[in-house]
Amino acid sequence: MTVDLATQISEAADAIRAVWGKVPRAGIILGTGAGSFARHIAAEAEIPYAAIPHFPRATALGHRGQLVCGTVEGLPIVAMDGRFHLYEGYTAAQITLPVRVLKRLGIALLIATNASGGLQPHFRPGDLLVIEDHINLMGANPLIGPNDDSLGPRFPDLSRPYDPQLIDHALTIAREAGFAAHRGVYVAVTGPNYETRAEYRFLRIIGGDVVGMSTVPEVLVAAHMGLRVLALSTITNVAGDGTAQPTDGHQVLAVAASAEERIGRIIRDILAAEARRNLSVPEGKPTT
Fold first, then answer.
1. What is the distance between the alpha carbons of residues 110 and 78, in angstroms, rounded to a whole number?
2. Parallel, antiparallel or unpaired: strands 75-81 and 181-188
3. Contact 104, 227 (CB under 8 A)
4. Ramachandran angles phi, psi of 136, nearest 5°
5. What is the rounded radius of gyration, in angstroms, for the C-alpha atoms of the chain?
6. Looking at the DSSP assignment, which residues form a beta bridge with residue 237?
7. Phi-psi region of 276 (alpha: psi -120 to 50; beta: other; left: phi over 0)
8. Are 163 and 230 in contact (CB under 8 A)?
9. CA 215, CA 80: separation in Å to the nearest integer?
10. Which H/E stretch holds residue 236?
11. Which residues contact 84 (CB under 8 A, 6 or more apart)?
């Protein structure tokens, strides 16, 4: 018997609350190369995905597969130390279930990180990109199917899925810290193969600045539920001139990891601002 989405969310959230009872204000998705950010979390609980009902298992390179619950800059948060992808064989609904569960636990802000291929010739491996919009070429959407109106509207607006104030704040942090961060459009494809030279050219022509295999499904669900979203991408290789060089997963992981301190600086400063913003907000109850 298939368990409906509302029941899956409830059962997963209850399992997490049984281990960690705080109300998180923000959720973080630690993508490829960003897992070491977990050391900046004052961890109070680490919950393997296998211990959470209905959660998939993380199989992607460098994704540990656990929730880290605790605080960053005094703000209660839950971090996904590893995400899920369509290329692992999961459905769009499966890979986005954790975002819905984090919303049920109480988050109002979602920060997502990923690794991407650069489509602009002036980009350099290791640069950061603050995502301001996206193009979905995955051929999948987690909102397909019967809509649960208690979770969000049938036709959610996607004119600004990424929060403009958070984008500006992230770029200001990078500028003041003295490292490169661009703003641009993320193109999402299914993978798991990297792109051909012709595909790189096509993606740039249609308006893409970087290309990757994640993030957009989670952002669609976040928009559906009314979450504020910030998404940060580490550019791991560049094929903006149409002369793509051979790429492998270990190379991507190494370049992404080299940018972790810069990604971490932005996330910590954003969460510090969020903590100040929440000082006047009393500790509430999780969303039901």
1. 10
2. unpaired
3. no
4. -95, 105
5. 18
6. 117
7. alpha
8. yes
9. 13
10. strand 228-238
11. 56, 58, 60, 90, 94, 95, 98
pLDDT digits (tens, 9 = 90+) for 188-200: 999 999 999 999 9
The reply to whether 220 falls in a domain is yes
Note whether residue 282 is domain-resident. Answer: no
Residue 125, domain extent: 5-277
User: Comparing C-alpha atoms, which of 217, 27, 218 is closest to residue 108?
Assistant: 27
- Give how many domains the chain has, as a whole number: 1
pTM above 0.85, yes or no: yes
Strand partners, 186: 134, 210
Structural domain includes residue 288: no
Strand pairing category for 42-48 and 109-118: unpaired
199 neighbors 82 (Cβ within 8 angstroms): no
At 279, which amino acid appears?
Answer: L
Residue 42 structure tokens:
């004052």
Assess if residue 11 is contained within a domain.
yes
Higher pLDDT, 207 or 253: 207
The Cα–Cα gap between 83 and 76 comes to 20
- Nearest in space to 211 (alpha carbons), one of 263, 252, 157, 162: 252
Q: Model confidence over 206-251: pLDDT tens digits? A: 999 999 999 999 999 999 999 999 999 999 988 866 555 666 556 6
For residue 161, the one-letter residue type is P
The CATH number of residue 184's host domain is 3.40.50.1580
Q: CA 165, 43, 215: angle at the middle one, nearest 5?
A: 45
Helix pair 260-277, 164-177: axis angle to 10 deg:
130
